[in-house]
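User: Can you model how adenosine-5'-triphosphate sits in this protein?
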Amino acid sequence: MFPKTLREAPKSAITANHKFLVRAGFVDQLMAGSWTLLPMGWRVVGKINQIIREEMNNIGGQEMLMPLLHPKEIWNQTGRWEAADEVMYKLKDTRGKEYALSFTHEEIVMDLVKKFVHSYKDLPLAVYHFSTKFRNEPRARSGILRGREFMMKDLYSAHTDEKDLMDYYEITKKAYVKIFKRLGFTNCKVVEASGGVFTDKHTHEFQVLADTGEDTIFYCNSCDFAQNHEIFEGKAGVTCPDCKKGKILESRAIEVGNIFPLKDKFSKAFGLTYKDKKGEDKFAQMGCYGIGISRLMGAIVEVYNDDKGIIWPKTVSPFNVHLVHIEDPGTEPWAKDTYEKLTKAGIEVLWDNREDVTAGEKFADCDLIGIPARLVVSGKTGKGKVELKMRSEKQTRVGSVDNVIKSLSV
Ligand code: ATP
Ligand code: MG
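Assistant: Here's the modeled complex, given as structure tokens:
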């Protein structure tokens, strides 16, 4: 397996995701804000993406892929070539033509949809993609939580009227809540926030409570009320303005998603109209919905770790099982049999069969990498048997490979 685990974290690393993802070999830094997703990191991202894909398809989203190199003219249509100057990477080709590297895709979606939407019969529609975003972040730190080049899933929807848009906005909000639950978060809040360069209206952020988060949120300990510090008027400890019962708590948090009811802001800029049933021209109503994929992988590590390493939730772990072979004489075939049985049962196995590495070092790597289940084959466990230890628990137990497979599959 490429690469090896590292004993030391980079000197600059402060956050858990930076230290552990680098040491365990999930990511590698090229420069500030720019990361390679190594084979195991890429596996985790694949799992995250698959969960998101299933939930996007469930709400009628259609997956596609849009380009990252954009002509200046398209950004002039909304005035964001100037307005988003600080975040956008801009470049000129040898003939002097100007381009932007994608920091988001609203303008590209508008250009696309305008070619195909003419009548109310063409609406509603929802398209999404997984792709890279480039943002000129002044302080790219906190490991992979803030990149200058990072991965996002962005969904865009178009509707005939505001009611249909807002109904879909609520459907998307529910799908997002489900996604973050499936990814293992039990502490993700839906938070009201301001719109930034996207919309003048309020938006909703999905915030995971974590001390290392860059955001500060205020939320009620009794109802669903939650607001970003940018819009919350008040302080921690006051009575909740919504339910009038609970107390407002303050917490640091990591923004993992953000949804925006754009309404007709972009449709007006692009002249995206359709003919309604009476044949009158109306502006389409738009929504956009983002999830920070690479930031999510970092957020999971911020929430799920201990002093030894990562503790992946089952749904996103790079492998289901970490199989360790302690090379007592004659045990080689037992390890091979175990590997084959597990693989046949559809269980993804990381098999540590390194020679000249002590059992202690192998176990330390298990704890660092953080796969939920550790299986050991050794002279002590005996033929056809394995020792099972869950990453999140202390105790071990020995059982037949068949029984262990059963207990892992449920
Ligand atoms: P932030 O406030 O953290 O800078 P943002 O509000 O500008 O983020 P959005 O435009 O809402 O980001 O992008 C959608 C999602 O993409 C965010 O919710 C976040 O999870 C992720 N994201 C945004 N910027 C970055 C970044 N620089 N690195 C990694 N992920 C990011
Ligand atoms: Mg945001």
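A couple of observations from the model: The first strand starts at residue 27 and ends at 31. The chain has eleven helices and 23 strands.
User: Helpful, thanks.
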